[in-house]
Write a structure and sequence with these properties.
Pfam families: DUF4423. InterPro entries: CHP02147 (IPR011873), DUF4423 (IPR025537). The structure is a single chain. The protein contains 12 helices and 4 strands. It has helices spanning about 10-20, 30-40, 45-50, 60-70, 75-90, 95-105, 115-120, 125-135, 145-150, 155-170, 200-220, 240-255; strands spanning about 110-115, 170-175, 180-185, 190. A hairpin with a 6-residue loop joins strand 2 and strand 3. Helix 5 (about 75-90) packs antiparallel against helix 6 (about 95-105), helix 8 crosses helix 10 and helix 9 (about 145-150) packs across helix 10.
């Protein structure tokens, strides 16, 4: 994957900030305030908001950062598209066309982000599994057999409806010559968008968590792996922890995704609090 295959712009910002404001021994050369002055801004507040993810940069600021950090021209367009995708996702707007553009430009990326607009139509957990199953070498469009392969967790009727939905939103297609189903996107794994308050995404997570609970009883320890960690945690590091988890998921996918396999597995990662903090409102938005 490209080193610019960041999930959020603040990750790209942090990466370059660390790369270019330290000397060969890792000692800081200048602060965020110094960088602001170098870029012609009176206050570091704007860059501070960008660094923490509270604000995304304008196109003008982005181009200034490109020049400051001497970003290669062939990488700039990838970053521009990723930033625009993030802006649209934050506003719950569809980004399918941008995702297609990105896939054509950044061909090294096997990691596909599902467009929220399409996800609203495929919130049932099994639809993304069906999409992945269609791309397996031995796939046959036999709804009863597919139901069996999915451990009878879905009926043949649900399989048929799921495939119809995937065809409708363009995540799979029929070969014009053979009529057989095939993936409409590059061979890749699927990740749900994160930090977007969407009922569709919440329903999808509930479905996948339910499958994990069933696996505790139905699958042997050789077939599945469950691990839990309870720890004391500083909430000020929540963004850092999320970024760490997202990078782990990407690394896991990069190492273990096998395009020649007929088996579909699921990796779920849950990170949540057990306790309330005094400063957290009970009305805080669920995501």
């Amino acid at each position: 994957m490209s080193e610019y295959n960041f999930t959020e712009f603040k990750d790209f910002f942090e990466y370059n900030l660390k790369k270019y404001n330290r000397d060969s021994e890792g000692v800081k050369i200048f602060t965020l305030n110094d960088l602001s002055k170098r870029l012609g801004y009176k206050s570091p507040s704007l860059l501070s908001m960008i660094a923490t993810g509270r604000r995304l940069p304008s196109n003008e600021i982005l181009e200034v950062l490109f020049e400051e950090w001497k970003i290669e021209k062939n990488q700039r367009e990838i970053i521009r598209i990723r930033l625009e995708i993030e802006k649209r996702m934050r506003k719950n707007k569809p980004a399918g066309l941008l995702l297609e553009r990105l896939a054509k430009i950044d061909k090294k990326s096997k990691y596909q982000m599902i467009d929220l607009d399409a996800f609203n139509s495929i919130k049932e957990w099994h639809n993304l599994v069906l999409q992945m199953l269609v791309s397996t070498p031995d796939f046959k469009e036999d709804y009863t057999q597919i139901s069996y392969l999915l451990k009878r967790k879905v009926t043949p009727s649900q399989v048929r409806k799921g495939i119809e939905t995937l065809l409708k939103v363009g995540l799979i297609k029929r070969n014009p010559k053979t009529g057989e189903l095939e993936s409409a996107t590059p061979d890749s794994s699927n990740e749900t968008t994160h930090d977007i308050p969407s009922e569709a995404i919440r329903e999808h997570h509930k479905g996948m968590i339910a499958r994990a609970l069933e696996a505790v009883e139905e699958q042997s320890v050789h077939e599945r792996h469950l691990n839990a960690l309870t720890l004391k945690f500083n909430k000020d590091k929540t963004d850092e922890a999320k970024a760490f988890i997202l990078n782990f998921v990407k690394d896991f996918n990069s190492k273990f995704y096998d395009h020649a396999s007929n088996d579909i597995h699921q990796l779920n990662v849950q990170f949540f609090g057990h306790t309330n903090s005094n400063h957290v409102s009970s009305k805080e938005t669920l995501q």
